[in-house]
TrEMBL record:
Domain of life the protein comes from: Bacteria
Subcellular location: Cell membrane
TM annotation in the entry: 60-82, 94-116, 136-160, 167-187, 199-225, 253-276, 288-310, 322-349, 369-395, 407-429, 441-463
Membrane topology: Multi-pass membrane protein
Keyword Transmembrane helix tagged: yes
Listed InterPro entries: MATE_fam, MATE_MdtK, MdtK-like
Keyword line: Antiport, Cell membrane, Ion transport, Membrane, Transmembrane, Transmembrane helix, Transport
Main location, first listed in the record: membrane
Protein name: Multidrug-efflux transporter
Chain's gene name: mdtK
Species annotation: Alienimonas chondri
Length: 483
């Protein structure tokens, strides 16, 4: 027989700003902690070797791009949990979680086969020998973290989808701290206490290992949490078997999300490879600007995730009108955050750049001068497109919460490749013949056009309202709880 719906995501009124932030604040802190860990990763690498800094962004994004189809399935678990929990079908929600973990097993097998081909992949980039060696080492190490990365996303969906975002926050904070600590030890090396010896400096390979191990920490914590509370009540581990019907439905809804991510990340990876052809200094400045962008923007992704969760709950409850209100509240909140960060990028770029330069010993005078000549201008591009990025993330997250995943994927592919990659390639490789700083500015103008168009398209989709009639619930499904 049917069971009562799970408790609401918060104790505040549905559709209110307080409800939004009760769900979003832990996610904002969570994603912000991930951003801090990534920034620390790049800062440590910049102080270890400029070639490692230049290599970390394209190699990391290539791994993320290839992983995206699997991540899309893992991330969609939260939508399934939200709608099934709100509709009183908790066992179906638990089954969805484990299908995401099975997707992680496939990811692990795929990346184990891909890792030996890293050299051939980065030969295509055409970067200098030092950068190429660092890219290969970083990519191969990240490949071994494929399983815990996807699995952690799927396991987090059990809590995020039910609105228990404080658990996600606590786990991600712990994983981020582990990442930062391991970064310091494995990049620079360390002397072990009690005369146990030394850990050598592994450089960028150590950075990749630290990232992979941080996701192992996250998975372990989620699995531990599931032995208590709601996980114990519904005996979540009893649903760990493979369920063909649920897996197929999760794949149908989640794969477009993964392709959306892949289109975005692959396009940005191609963009970085093209910028890398302009020179190592140009690639380092671009990496720095994107990294600072992620630091301010990742908390805003928490708003997009909250919109996904709350829209999923409202659809499961049959109240799409409240989902509309939540979408607008989340967008307004994110826009305010981006206005503040944009002002900081424009008015105070110096202290942000000095964070990466440190004492400057790892940079030659020419490299330092090139970074100062280019990076402040790139941060102005970031400030210009940030507002539209919020539209894309929040409104895109809102429609995905209802199960509308195909349009965002198609629109992202069109904008990313038609407005960013193709014109950047023309400017760098084809008829434009842009070089140096002029080439970087042309590339960033194309990137800005992509993000602005993506944001406007997601806004139109949300306002159009087609997503209101969508759902991932199984018609006529009857839930049962193991007792």
């Amino acid at each position: 027989m049917d069971v009562p719906a799970s408790p609401p995501p918060s104790s505040y009124p549905a559709g209110s700003l307080r409800e939004l932030w009760a769900v979003a604040a832990p996610l904002a802190i969570s994603t912000g902690s991930v951003g801090v860990a990534h920034v620390a990763d790049r800062v440590f690498l910049a102080r270890f070797d400029p070639a490692a800094l230049a290599a970390s962004m394209p190699a990391g994004m290539l791994q993320w791009a290839v992983l995206s189809p699997f991540l899309g399935v893992g991330m969609t678990v939260g939508t399934f949990v939200a709608q099934n929990a709100a509709a009183g079908q908790p066992s179906r929600a638990a089954t969805a979680v484990w299908q995401g973990v099975w997707a992680a097993v496939l990811a692990a097998l795929f990346f184990a086969a891909l890792a030996p081909s890293a050299g051939a992949l980065f030969d295509l980039a055409g970067h200098g020998p030092e950068v190429r060696r660092a890219e290969i080492a970083y990519f191969q190490m990240l490949c071994w973290g494929a399983f815990p990365t996807v699995a952690s996303f799927a396991l987090s969906g059990f809590y995020a989808g039910r609105g228990r975002t404080s658990v996600v926050m606590a786990v991600n904070l712990a994983a981020a701290l582990a990442n930062i600590g391991l970064d310091w030890i494995l990049i620079f090396g360390a002397r072990l206490p009690w005369g146990l010896g030394e850990i050598p400096a592994y450089g960028i390979t150590g950075a990749g290992a630290a990232t992979a191990m941080s996701f192992v920490v996250a998975c372990g914590l989620y699995l531990l949490c599931m032995t208590r509370g709601a996980g114990r009540e519904i005996r979540i581990y009893s649903h760990a078997r493979f369920d063909r019907a649920m897996a197929a439905k999760l794949l149908k809804v989640g794969l477009p999300t993964g392709l959306n991510m892949a289109a975005d990340v692959v396009a940005l990876t191609a963009f970085l490879f093209l910028v890398g052809r302009l020179g190592r200094n140009e690639l380092a400045a671009t990496t720095l600007a994107f990294n600072l962008n992620s630091l301010c923007f990742l908390p805003a992704i928490g708003l997009g995730s909250a919109a996904t969760i709350l829209v999923g709950h409202r659809v499961g409850e049959g109240r799409p009108d409240l989902a509309v209100r939540t979408g607008w509240l989340a967008t307004a909140s994110g826009a305010a955050m981006m206005c503040v960060s944009g002002a900081i990028f424009i008015l105070f770029p110096g202290p942000l750049i000095e964070l990466y330069l440190g004492d400057g010993d790892s940079f030659t005078p020419g490299e330092t001068a090139a970074l100062w000549a280019t990076a402040p201008a790139l941060l102005k591009f970031v400030a210009a497109y940030s507002l539209f990025d919020i539209f894309a993330v929040v409104f895109g997250g809102a429609v995905r919460g209802a199960g509308d995943t195909t349009f965002p994927a198609l629109w992202t592919i069109f904008c990313a490749w038609g407005l960013m990659v193709a014109p950047t390639a023309w400017g760098v490789l084809g008829g434009g013949h842009w070089e140096g700083r002029d080439g970087v500015f042309w590339a960033w103008a194309c990137c800005t056009a992509y993000i602005v168009s993506g944001g406007l398209g997601m806004t139109a989709r949300f306002i159009g309202g087609k997503w209101k009639a969508m759902s991932v619930l199984e018609e006529g499904a009857i839930d049962e709880i193991t007792t």
